[in-house]
Specification:
mainly beta
Length: 39
């Protein structure tokens, strides 16, 4: 993910998980975590 690294976000993790929403229907959840360096 070079674009994020160049923008100062060198640690980016994206994952998907199966679960359900408020209606109980199957839902695919996308989780993103990013760490930005201080300058």
């Amino acid at each position: 993910m070079r674009l994020f690294d160049e923008a100062g976000w060198p640690e980016v993790d994206v994952a998907e998980t199966e679960g359900s929403g408020y209606d109980g229907a199957p839902t695919l959840w996308l989780h993103a975590t990013a760490v930005k360096l201080r300058k």
